[in-house]
Write a structure and sequence with these properties.
Low-confidence stretches: none
Shape: globular
Number of helices: 15
Bound molecules: pyridoxal-5'-phosphate
Number of strands: 15
Strand content: 15-25%
Order of helices and strands: HHHEEEHHEHEHEEHEHEEHEHHHEHEEEH
Strand order of the largest sheet: 4-11-10-9-8-5-6-7
Largest sheet: 8 strands, mixed
């Protein structure tokens, strides 16, 4: 079945055969088929859809070998990808050259964290109120999150995450055999009362996005951080992971939760502000989590290239690069707030307190996405991000031009009020 999904024979959403029928066809015990389905579920290939049986996940963890990215038709503006604007990122050639020079000769047996990177991380995380005595370096947010989860959890454990959530995170949890516990959020981040309920239902870990939440742009406010900390103070054994992926360009200050439980990690990727191709994220955490993670990492990639770590340290110390990043943050904030204001003037409530995206609630995603596409705008349907939450559109503002704000707001207002011919 996994091969059939990889080959594209079994497509996303396809129903798989009922256990008894497949067992009869193959001449095996139904328990054997049930066990195989369980493994497929734990590998993130299929999901159980209640009485509707078992289906191939909409984004199965088994990737078809020839999968090509979705093509945006010619002449359509792509505001669907969630990525930072390449034109607002620092150039990497010189930092990489200097990083390689600084790291020359380093390799096996050397400290897995470059001293310059550690010093920079301690200074910035410390200034943001994140205890940063214990650090590790990973290849990306998801690499860090996966490693932290594997230090503490087992397949079948429940993990509370925001709903709607970053689709890749949902896919990762499925691939690790972890059970998602969706928690509502508002503009100020994950709701504390809903987190409490999720923990009461047995969630063993919680993953929060500090700011620039994907897809809604929510950011944890100081008040909300206090309320979440209060809830977590009664669950000291819960694993807390903070994803601060857009730190320098989020447009709002960090209200940290780090240290609210005994096991925690604060993950700060350099992708959004400094460059996605650096593939580097720094984590701070409690000593046990960080020690276990680094020990396990040693038995895998070993370490993140010292040359890249040094290059990131060079970027962090470079005045011109800092200026570019501050400029990017201003630019994103300007575009986000301009689009939100234009939508509000048109009577369309939308969200986007921070980061690269805004979220527009709609009644029918398919109709709204199609309507916008017809007007030359590609945006992401909320279904990619939603678990139990209501429909919406994610619009990435990163590459928007100021002159496009009003036409986009007009098209979005039309799309948001459109209702499908089926009367959804
Ligand atoms: C919520 C969230 N966290 C983190 C990231 C960055 O991930 P990475 O560090 O793997 O580039 C993204 C990228 O889109 C994201 O949306």
């Amino acid at each position: 079945m996994e091969q059939a999904v990889a080959a594209g024979v079994l497509e996303p959403g396809a129903t798989v055969e009922p256990i008894r029928r497949l067992a009869a066809e193959l001449g095996v015990n139904p328990n054997t088929v049930a066990a195989a389905y369980r493994m497929l579920r734990e590998r993130g290939v299929v999901q159980t859809a209640g009485r509707r049986g078992t289906r191939v996940r909409s984004r199965p963890a088994t990737v078809p070998l020839d999968r090509t990215p979705l093509e945006v038709p010619a002449g359509v503006r792509d505001l669907a990808d969630g990525r930072p604007a390449a034109s607002l990122l620092p150039r990497l050639a010189e930092p990489l050259r200097r990083g390689a020079t600084a790291a020359a000769g380093r390799g096996y047996g050397d400290d897995d964290i470059a001293a310059a990177l550690a010093a920079g991380a301690r200074a910035t995380l410390g200034a943001d109120g994140v205890p940063a005595q214990h650090l590790a370096v990973a290849h990306s947010t998801l690499d860090a999150v996966e490693r932290v989860l594997q230090v503490h959890l087992r397949p079948g454990d429940r993990v509370a995450i925001e709903d709607p959530a970053w689709a890749n995170l949902v896919d990762l949890l499925a691939a690790l055999g972890l059970v998602v516990e969706p928690v509502c959020l508002d503009d100020d981040g994950m709701r504390a009362d809903r987190l409490q309920a999720a923990l009461a239902r047995g969630a063993r870990a919680v993953i929060v996005t500090s700011r620039a939440q994907v897809p809604t742009g929510a950011a944890i406010s100081p008040d909300r951080a206090g309320a979440l900390r209060h809830v977590l103070s009664h669950h000291r054994d819960v694993l807390l992971i903070e994803d601060d992926h857009a730190a320098e360009i989020a447009g709002v200050n960090l209200a940290p939760l780090a240290g609210a439980t005994g096991s925690w990690a604060h993950v700060r990727s350099v992708s959004k502000a400094w460059g996605p191709d650096l593939r580097l994220a720094v984590l701070a955490g409690d000593p046990t989590t960080i020690d276990r993670l680094r020990a396990r990492q040693r038995l895998g990639p070993g370490w993140v290239s010292h040359a890249v770590q040094e290059a990131v340290a060079v970027l962090w110390h470079s005045q011109p690069a800092q200026t570019l990043v501050r400029n990017a943050e201003r630019e994103y904030t300007k575009l986000r707030t301009a689009l939100l204001a234009a939508l509000s003037q048109r009577g369309v409530p939308a969200h986007g307190r921070s980061g690269l995206n805004i979220w527009v609630p709609v009644r029918d995603e398919t109709t709204a996405v199609t309507s916008l596409l017809g007007n030359g705008w590609a945006v992401a349907a909320g279904s990619r991000f939603r678990l139990a939450s209501s429909p919406g559109l994610r619009i990435t503002i990163a590459t928007l031009r100021a002159s496009e704000v009003l036409p986009l707001a007009d098209a979005t207002a039309r799309a948001a009020s459109s209702v499908s011919s089926r009367g959804v």
